[in-house]
Amino acid sequence: MSFQEVVFYLFSLTLLLSAGAVVLARNTVHSALFLVLTFFTTSAIWLLLEAEFLAITLILVYVGAVMVLFLFVIMMLDVDLAKLKEGFIQYLPIGVLVVLVMSAEMIMVVGSSKFGTDAYPIPVPKAADYSNTKDLGSVLYTEYVLQFELAAVILLVAIIAAIALTMRRRPNTKYQSPAKQVMVKKADRLRIVKMDSE
After folding, report:
1. Residue 19's closest CA among 3, 33, 2?
2. 136 lies in a domain?
3. Distance separating alpha carbons of residues 29 and 7, to the nearest angstrom
4. pLDDT digits (tens, 9 = 90+) for 139-153
């Protein structure tokens, strides 16, 4: 067993344990921190697969932005853990069934002939100036440009829907109407008063 395989199995074991701890941790802050560890170990596995751009993107976007936001929200909210655990036993059989179905699906996909070492030839070593970011960009914007743009449109629709769902108008709040501001003339706002000098 080579050193790379040992490191891969070490990171994979850490990934599985931290992902399980995300679900099983009693404290929500600990759960979020275990999710950060999960992202870090995933990016380390991507580095082993020579996908440096994806690994750095995972750390910068998810760990650097999303998880910091999660931690702020979790720490600001007063989460009642006893109330959250009330329906745990009630929904346990459904949760176990979903886990079994998803595990069977993943085993069928990963265990098929399209994946594994037999499906693809051993990669040829790359030159020192090789950039997988350049190759990823060229493939993404040529072969998969339609799928990439479709994903961008779906994300844009999701952002707009989230804003529309959370935006509510409060009757006591003062707000300005840009349409009325544009229609205002000088005579509506300005009144010149002549006064005698003192």
Report:
1. 33
2. no
3. 28
4. 888 888 999 899 999
Question: pTM above the 0.90 mark?
Answer: no
Beta-carbon neighbour count of residue 33 at 10 Å?
Answer: 17
Is residue 107 a part of any domain in this protein? no
CATH of the domain at 47: 1.20.120.1200
Q: Kindly report the number of other CB atoms within 10 A of residue 162's CB atom.
A: 10
Which structural domain, as residue segments, surrounds residue 19?
1-83
Quick: pLDDT tens for 13-70.
Answer: 999 999 999 988 888 888 888 999 999 999 999 888 888 888 888 898 888 888 888 8
Question: Is 143 domain-assigned?
Answer: no
Q: Is 56 part of a structural domain of the chain?
A: yes
